[in-house]
Amino acid sequence: MSGGGKTGGGKAGGKGTGSSKTGAAKAGGAGGARVPGKQAPKTVAGGGGARDMRVKVKKAGKLKHSSQLWLERQLNDPYVKRARELGYRSRAAFKLEEMDDKYHFLKPGQKLIDLGCAPGGWCQIAAARIGLDKGKGRIVGIDLLPVDPIPGVDLVEMDFMDEEAPALLTQRLGGRADGVMSDMAANTTGHKKTDHIKIIALAEAALDFAHSVLAPGGFFLAKLFQGGDSATLLGGLKRDFTTVRNIKPASSRSDSSELYVLATGFRRRAEAESEFEAAP
Predict the structure, then answer these.
(1) Which of 9, 27, 198, 227 has the most CB atoms around it within 10 Å of its CB?
(2) Where residue 277 falls among pLDDT bands split at 50, 70, 90?
(3) 0.85 exceeded by the pTM?
(4) Helix axes 192-213, 165-173, angle to 10 degrees
């Protein structure tokens, strides 16, 4: 989501840079209008001797080889297909479902902020689990990309890295947050070290914001890429939260270096408290 989302890749099946998913954004496409539930996609397996049923994409026009491979992966991804069937806006919705099914950090009545929220898969799942349709809780989502309306969700089209974004999000939420979620990811370069540094910078910006807005006991969830430059980020999380976990959801592609860090039980610091009170 970019700027509010992932600027670049977005929940590509994910979210983008600056907080923006400008790029592939969360792939999957909206299907019907089913309320998100806890169903996971069925495993697609072929027995010995089974025919290869994968869809092949013939190169047409100026379609680059990399684009051809990406399209083939999308067409053959069981999570993408299942997302369409269930009306989820992206396959990334399954990642949040899976993580919450195991760790139960989403609760009725919570107030949440979703950074890099386009196209809205995480907002859909979170809205169902906090009871937004029953008038419980509140969600504010931000992304550089426009997001189609989601009932009850307050959507901001803006770069999260804009200096005015944190104050605006806090104002729109109307108080402290019970959780800050970030699926932001910058456009990937193909150079793992560079991509890792860029996503760590986004996660650190999201964490700085979380420190200022989270209520005691709140949670922080952010996407990372595997690499060796996350020591400072993880050190800060372990200092300020009671529990910190690295998670690789089954719905995350096996060839992807992405993982998620979930920190629960936020312990407020005095300086963060004073900064919040001084905010307009």
Answers:
(1) 9
(2) low
(3) no
(4) 50
- Give the gyration radius of the chain's Cα atoms: 18
What token pair was written down for 134?
Answer: 């029953």
Residues in Cβ contact with 239 at an 8 Å cutoff, skipping those fewer than 6 apart: none
Three-class HEC string of the chain: CEECCECCCCECCECCCECECCCCCCCECCCCCCCCCCCCCCCCCCCCCCCCCCCCCCCCCCCCHHHHHHHHHHHHCHHHHHHHHHCCCECHHHHHHHHHHHHCCCCCCCEEEEECCCCCHHHHHHHHHHCHHHCCCEEEEEECCCCCCCCCEEEEECCCCCCCHHHHHHHHHCCCEEEEEECCCCCCCCCHHHHHHHHHHHHHHHHHHHHHHEEEEEEEEEEEECCCCCHHHHHHHHHHEEEEEEECCCCCCCCCCEEEEEEEEECCCHHHHHHHHHCC
User: 136, 223, 238, 248: which one is catalytic?
Assistant: 223
CA distance 79 to 251: 7
Domains by residue range for the chain, with CATH: 2-30+59-278 (3.40.50.150)
Q: For residue 223, indicate whether it is catalytic.
A: yes
| 9 contacts 21 by C-beta, under 8 angstroms | yes
Tokens of 188: 């990937």
Q: For position 131, what pLDDT does the model report?
A: 98
In this predicted model, what pLDDT tens digit does every residue of 43-69 receive, in sequence order?
A: 333 344 444 445 555 555 566 655 655
Nearest to 152 by CA among 132, 122, 128, 125: 132
For strands 111-115 and 214-225, give the pairing: unpaired
Q: Quick one: tokens of 250?
A: 């089954």
